[in-house]
């Protein structure tokens, strides 16, 4: 099985927060941040397997600090763990007050991607090798998150059986 260092999947993106990016609380709109998260995570996933990688799930997005127009927002992503055809990607969001230079973790997110071949079938993805303390901690705790994802997916499938597909106006 092919192996790659986690650092080979690492990506960075830094943006300014503009007035059109904020909500009625004058903080970065959550949907805008989620779009940035999915975008950068997909690049990390593709860097691991060098094929099309699709989002299987956004496992969590935890908003920890507000991001304001006086801040920059920095996203860092990397693959933390791999299964057979799936991979877990972690995204760390740092807000930096551009006036004071103070930085804080504004959000964290875990997403799951699947690598696809030319016929859109899942394929085996390389295993990741963590090197830094941060990478090792995320790798060690990934099995627990994978179990939680599996359970949540099973519950979601059961729940979907109860949902209606008829529109209210029909």
Question: How does this model look, in words?
Answer:
The protein has 170 residues and is α+β, with helices and mostly antiparallel strands. It has one domain: Thiol Ester Dehydrase, Chain A, CATH 3.10.129. The strands form two sheets. Strands 2-4-5-6-3 form a five-stranded antiparallel β-sheet, sandwiched between helices. The mean pLDDT is 95.
What are its keywords?
170 residues, alpha+beta, Thiol Ester Dehydrase, Chain A, five-stranded antiparallel β-sheet, two-stranded parallel ribbon
CATH homologous superfamily classification: Hotdog Thioesterase
Looking at the structure, the CATH topology is Thiol Ester Dehydrase, Chain A
What structural class do helix, strand and pairing data support? alpha+beta
Average of pLDDT = 95
First-residue to last-residue Cα separation: 52 Å
The largest pleated sheet is described as:
5 strands, antiparallel
Count the helices. How many? Answer: 3
Low-confidence stretches: none
Q: Tell me the Rg in angstroms.
A: 18 Å
Count the domains: 1
Large-scale geometry: globular
Helicity range: 25-40%
Number of strands: 7
User: SSE order, as H and E?
Assistant: EEHEEEEEHH
Kindly provide the name of the CATH class: Alpha Beta
State which percent range the strand residues make up: 35-45%
Q: What is the subunit organization of this protein?
A: single chain
């Amino acid at each position: 099985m092919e192996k790659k260092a986690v650092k080979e999947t690492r990506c960075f993106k830094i943006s300014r927060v503009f007035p059109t990016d904020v909500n009625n609380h004058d903080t970065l709109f959550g949907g805008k941040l989620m779009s940035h998260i999915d975008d950068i995570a997909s690049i990390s996933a593709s860097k691991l397997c060098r094929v099309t990688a699709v989002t299987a799930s956004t496992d969590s997005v935890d908003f920890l600090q507000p991001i304001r127009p006086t801040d920059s927002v920095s996203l860092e992503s990397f693959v933390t763990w791999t299964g057979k055809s799936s991979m877990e990607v972690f995204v760390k969001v740092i807000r930096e007050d551009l006036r004071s230079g103070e930085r804080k973790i504004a959000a964290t997110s875990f997403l799951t991607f699947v690598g696809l071949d030319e016929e859109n079938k899942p394929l085996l993805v390389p295993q990741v090798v963590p090197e830094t303390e941060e990478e090792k901690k995320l790798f060690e705790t990934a099995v627990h998150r994978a179990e939680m994802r599996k359970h949540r997916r099973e519950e979601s499938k059961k729940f979907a059986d109860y949902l209606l597909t008829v529109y209210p106006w029909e």
